[in-house]
Amino acid sequence: MTIALECTTDISQKLEAVAAIATKVFSIYSEDDLLDKSRMLKYPAVGVLYEGITASFEDPSRQGLATELRVALVLVIDGKSIGNLDKKNEAAQVLDTMRDALKMKTSPSGHKWRFVSEIPVGLVENVLIYVQRWATFVPITP
Questions:
Q1: What sign has the CA pseudo-torsion 1, 116, 124, 76?
Q2: Which of 61, 110, 126, 134 sits between 20 and 30 A of 42, alpha carbons compared?
Q3: Is 49 in contact with 74 (CB distance < 8 Å)?
Q4: Number of domains, the chain
C-alpha cells in the first residue's frame, strides 16, 4: 500500500468515529464527485481528497528528502434553512468534531497530523461546502 493510500484511509477511519458523519465518509477526487456520491444520503457527509505530496520547507537533513502529504476534507451539509435554524452553526459543530478527531493523532508515516486551514467554499445546489485541510510529514527514503 502506498503512503498516500495509507494516509487517506487513516483519516477516513478517524473521521468515521465522528457520530454526525460516521457512515458518510468517502474517498473522492473532486467536490463534484462528493456531491454525486452523497446525493442520496442525509447530510452532512465528508469527502477525503488526496492533494498530493510537496517539498517541506522544514528539512533538517538538508538533503531534499523532507516532504509533506496534504489531504482536504470536504464537508457538505444541507444548506436549506428551516425556520431560525442556521445550518452554518451545524457545520461549525461538525468541523469542530472533525478537528478533535484528528488533532494530536499520528499518521501512518509516524508523524502527527497537522491542521493547515479551514474555509467555507460556498453554496452549491442548496448544499453548503467547507474545506478543512490537514498535512503530515512523509520522509522520502534515499
A1: positive
A2: 134
A3: yes
A4: 1
The whole model's pTM is what?
A: 0.88
Q: Domain residues for 49?
A: 3-137
Strand partners, 135: 70, 114
On whether residue 32 sits in a domain, the answer given is yes
The average confidence (pLDDT) of the chain is 86
Distance between CA 140 and CA 89 in Å, rounded? 41
Q: pLDDT digit string (tens) for 28-70?
A: 888 778 778 877 878 899 999 999 998 776 665 566 667 899 9
Contact 109, 136 (CB under 8 A): yes
**Which pLDDT tens digit goes with each residue over 61-97?**
566 667 899 999 999 988 766 555 566 688 889 999 9
- Distance, in Å, from the CA atom of 135 to the CA atom of 117, rounded to the nearest integer, reads 10
Query: Are 94 and 118 within 8 A, CB to CB?
Result: no
Whether 38 maps to a domain, the answer reads: yes
- Do 55 and 67 touch, CB atoms closer than 8 A? yes
Cell of 132: 478543512
Residue 131's φ and ψ, nearest 5 degrees, are -125, 130
Q: Is the residue at 111 inside a domain? A: yes
